[in-house]
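explain this.
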Amino acid sequence: MRDFAREFYQSPQWRKARESYLKEHKYICEMCGGVADTVHHIQHLNPTNIHDPNITLNRDNLMAVCRDCHAKVHTKYERRYTVDENGNVFSK
């Protein structure tokens, strides 16, 4: 969890929204049909939008996913490693 989002993810508002969303979707992953245990933000949270409930708590911006699908979504859009001009690999 990123530092800027820690307070939000620990808030009662998020915990209630998360649990409600998972129950509404019967804990079924919206990507693969497996068991969902995570609620993913389609528009990723960042320091600019973290205090905007139209992004953070908007059900249209949420997706019930399993851990594997959540990892796939983030790996697809966020590179965790990069390579410098000398070919050295390092984490971001």
